[in-house]
Predict the structure.
Amino acid sequence: MNSFFYDLFLLVEYHNIERLGDIMLLLGNDRFVTQDYKTHGYGEDYKGEHLSDIRIRGTAKVIKVVNKYIAYEDTIDYNKFLKNKNEWRDETYFNCVSITGKNVRYHQSELGGNQIELESYDNNKKRYLKIYNMAEVFVSVGDIIDSNTVIGKQGNTGLVLSKKQESDETYGSHIHFEVLDENYNNIDPREYATFIKELKYIEQTNVSDARKKQIKIIADKINIKQSPTNESANIGYVNESEVYDINGVVEDETKTWYNIKTNTGIIGFISNDKGTNQILVIEEGHDIEGLIKEVDEQRELKLIYTCEKDGVYAVRLQKGDNLYLDM
Ligand SMILES: [Zn+2]
């Protein structure tokens, strides 16, 4: 199935469904189920107070964030979308008109609006959590969050349906929630939403160690393969900014394959296409931390950062960071 139809199917919302149960604590706040897993497939929909906080129970790592849409201004009525989608389509994007009349461009993979994907474990079994249609996301990729973390706020970005007037700023406000297992199959998310199940994140990355030659993941996500071929089975993923020891290297015509072992016990191969930088090799003795020094603003400082080799770099600067050479 191509991703466009997958997304559409996944995002169909039926908010006129009768209330299914009493208000209960769902994802950290009083909400009730508006569509259950049996009816919705893929996930469940929960309705609560617009802009209320969203939390999980336990710990998890943030592996994907979309946080660029504005609640209400960028809200797209699902029925209008269905009616206009051919006209709105622009290759992999849709030039939508929101319920406030604003032109909003959505990538086909982001029709769920502001969203987040988390990775964690339930009794050592891998789980992925997805939350869509948020008003705002407060966490970043790579963050390890816990029960005290406010992940974001319930909202109405992306495609939604509602019985309310379109002039109501809370039109279609809800949470769409999905939980996937280690093979990326959807499972019933209810016990994760009601906090019956507690998640516990296990860091799968190896420890960064300057005494060893290691690799750092630059791409968002790379499949771990059982053997060093494209046809081999996927047995897991590595994510951006994780670091691994190199247990072996296999070269073929187009790729360099690295044999790794995650801290969760997965042993397999990840690949870097030759001529690209999906994986960065960190040479032995390369003390990345040591490159960043406290500087005295009174002394003469010279801005450095001369990259000597194509595509090689040792530090990734964050917004607001400076790199100086102390003269
Ligand atoms: Zn939904």
In short: Confidence is low (pLDDT under 50) at residues 1-18, 290-296. The radius of gyration is 22 Å.
